[in-house]
Each structure stands twice: as structure tokens, then as C-alpha cells.
Amino acid sequence: MSSAYIDINTVFYGVDLQEVEGIKVGGSISIDGDAEGIELSLSGSGSVGGNLTCEKISISGSFKVAGSIKCVEFEASGSISIGNNVSCNNMEIPDGLKTKNIECDKIEVHGALKCGELYAREVRIGKKSKILCNIIGKSIFIGNEAEVKSIIGERVHVEKRAEVDEIRYVNKAGMNEDSEIGKLVKIDRLSKHINGPGKSLGK
User: Fold this and answer.
1) Is position 201 within any domain?
2) In the beta sheet, which residues pair with residue 22?
3) Are residues 77 and 9 in the same domain?
């Protein structure tokens, strides 16, 4: 696969990353408009003025997207801000991310997440994570000392000293006796059908 490596501060006014398939940035990058490609790897700071569509996105640093992100693999460490929605298959968030809504197949969070609603088939919230959003999923695991606003799930497990304001579950809710649950309600079914995005972006 052809690729490009950039190690200086760079500004693109309209860019199609598909032309080089992969782009790796060390430093800072600014894209004025939409961006599409196979792979984007950033170590430093960056911004996209429109929507970002990539098969694989790997971010380490500070990153802002004014529009939405659509991808297959998304790993982001640092401070990430997305103006609209995120749609992908697999997400890993070691640090912090802020966005409107997230829809994915699997997500793992080990830091802070702030969004409106998170839809996923499988959700794993790591130890001491802080989640300010409504989580809706089939299988939801909340780690030790995590703080979560709201959960609606088919199967929910909460570890010790975790705090959840409200849990609504369909089949099973396993709670550690040291966890703090504000409200626990059994429901008949999920209000939204959880079906993760496809395995390919059709490129």
C-alpha cells in the first residue's frame, strides 16, 4: 500500500486520502473540508473541517472533526472532539472523547466519554472511567469505580464501587454488592434494534 508521511505542520484545502491510501502525520495537520481514505494515523494535533471517512483511524494527541466520522477501526488516545456522529465497527478510547452520538459494534472505554447516546452490541467500560451519556446495548460491562449516567441493555454487569444513575435491563443484571445503582428497572425489550455497522465501507 502506498503511503505518505508528514512531519511538519500541514494544511490541506480539500483532500482525498484515497489517492495515497494511507497517511501518517507526526506534528499537526489541518484539512479544510471532507477527507476520505484507507488509513489515517496521527501523532500530534489535527483537525478536519468536514466529515472523515476511513477504514482505519489511529489518533494520538489532540484531534477535532467538525462533521461526522465513519470507519471500521477507530483507536483514539488524547483529546478528541467530533461535532456530529461516529459510526464504526470497533472503537477503543483510552483517554477522552466528546461527540454527538456513537453507533458501533464493539466499544471499549478506559477514560472519559461524553455524548448523547451510545448504541453498541458490546460495551466495555474500564476501571474509573467517566461516561456522560446514555448507553444502549446488548452486552454491557461496567468496571470497578466507573461512573455511568444511564444504561439500557439486554445483559448488564456492574463491578464493585461503580456508580450508575439508572439501569434498565431485559434479560440479566449482575450487580456487585459494593456498586451504587440509583434506579434498577426490568423492561420487555430494547427500544432500538442493535445492529452494528457493516464490516466494510464499500471501497
Assistant:
1) no
2) 3, 39
3) yes
Residue 17 reports pLDDT greater than 80: no
| Residue 91: its H or E element | strand 85-93
What range does the domain containing 85 cover?
Answer: 1-92
Of 117, 122, 52, which is closest to residue 131 (Cα–Cα)? 117
Residue range 65-96, pLDDT digits in tens: 999 999 999 998 888 999 999 999 999 998 89
Contacts of 146 (CB under 8 A, 6+ apart): 125, 126, 127, 128, 129, 130, 131, 159, 162, 163
Final residue belonging to a domain, choices 57, 92, 127:
92
More confident residue, 37 or 80: 80
Residue listed under C-alpha cell 444502549? 136
- 92, 115, 148 - which closes a domain: 92
Residue 18 sits in the same domain as residue 44 = yes
pLDDT, tens digit, 9 for 90 and up, residues 146-164:
999 999 999 999 999 999 9
Instruction: Check: CB of residue 126 under 8 Å from CB of residue 142.
Output: no
Question: 16: closest CA among 53, 46, 49?
Answer: 53
Domain shared by 74 and 104, yes or no? no
The count of structural domains within the chain is 2
Backbone dihedral region of 100: left (phi > 0), alpha (psi from -120 to 50 degrees) or beta? alpha
Q: Are 17 and 38 in contact, with CB atoms under 8 Å apart?
A: yes
Question: Does one domain contain both 51 and 74?
Answer: yes
pTM of the model: 0.84
